[in-house]
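Input sequence (492 aa), recorded before submission:
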Amino acid sequence: MPLPLYCAHARPNGQTCSFHGPGHMTTTTTRPAAPTTEDEGVLVVAAAAVDAMPAPAPPVDADDREKQKKGRASRKKKKTRRRTPSQEEVAAQQSVLRWARRGEVHDDVDAAGCGYLSQFGRRRPRVAVELHAHSARSDGSLSPTALVERAHRNGVKVLALTDHDTMAGVPEAIESAKEFSIRIIPAVEISAVYSPGNGAGAGEPVHILAYYGSWGPAKSQELEKVLSKIREGRYTRAKDMLSKLRNLHMPLKFEDVCNIAGNGVAPGRVHVARAMVEAGYVDNLRQAFSRYLYDGGPAYATGSEPAGESVVQLICRTGGIAVLAHPWALKYTVPVIKDLKAAGLHGIEAYRSDGKLSGLSDLADTYELLKLGGSDYHGRDDKEEPDIGSVDLPVLAFFRFLEVARPIWRNAMKENFANTVERIPDWNGSKGYRRTSSGNDFCSMCLSSPELEETDDSEVEVLQMEFSDIILNSRSCKMHIEQRAKITPRLH
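Predicted structure, token format:
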């Protein structure tokens, strides 16, 4: 008798099937054993581990891969910004520092021209330059002396005082800067108006910065005549603004506005705004401007500003560098820049405390203009106002500014020099002539004049070359090198 076959198969549901031979099968159900306490602990830990595992990453499509690639490239680009300064940047920094210090060499400018690089590591070389700042001589809150002191605390090496329509604060700034070895650029921000060539729309206010050499503008009387007229117009303008505020049920006294401006200072919008704050009509200066005094606002008024093109031409005639201030605030930015460039504009402000404006940078490139910038510091009680020296103007940008400016300033200096000679009595005696043996002796005599104290070594060299072996007469300062033999008998 054959032995019965036996086979057991376990099903997923816990049942067990038994085969006892052909045609015989029995099914029994086997319950899983209850887990022990130890088993329960293992299960809990395992479950927690599963829950803690990160969810599987979703599949990355082509767009996501492209974004990730750009992100990595951007991070890589940021890392590569910390590069070794180029030789051009280092040379420019050395040149700017020497100019700022009037040719003096300090320990922090080594033979390789790497002054200040140690404190900046591999970053781009920088010399703190402030090309747009105001004092209490116009609408700033600090005196020229206090402004210079603040610039020194902020590490500024070159400061341009750009008060509105006046250069009255420049002498005080120059005197104060001697204590801190800061180079002062005599400057002024001239109010003007631009009218589109097609005559469409009202004239738009524009401000043009004029930068001069250490001897100031040539034809200074012509410049002062224009500035004086603009300042006189400010008094009429202030009265017009007060009239509009009166119609808005905010009466103010003209005397109060003039007292806020200070003795001899032509009142401007900021002085009206301060009067509004003191009267309780607004909470702060920003509110006064944003609600009432902005260009074209309900209390805005124009003065007697000349055309922008004529202002640029005036700056060029008087030996200055003409730069358009805050062009980002203009309504007709491109036409203004185009027309002022045709009149002789040298540059525009393209750098602010929040960085370079790419659109303006492109415009500057298009019209071959210098790219400059400044904080436009006024010292107002405004936390959002950029501090003096806060604009990171690249040293190459300022170096290129000097490349354009210095030949123009030298020509203005020579014109001022000749005019100064005529006004010095010792050089116009009874005989009408005085002779010097060399340009060096002549310059020594000239520089003894109080009017000519602010002259650096490079300017002295220019004078020595231009006025070497000269003869002075009572009418003018002339060079007679070629005619020396003819004139010599008359001098004895």
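Checked by second reader. The longest strand covers residues 183-194.
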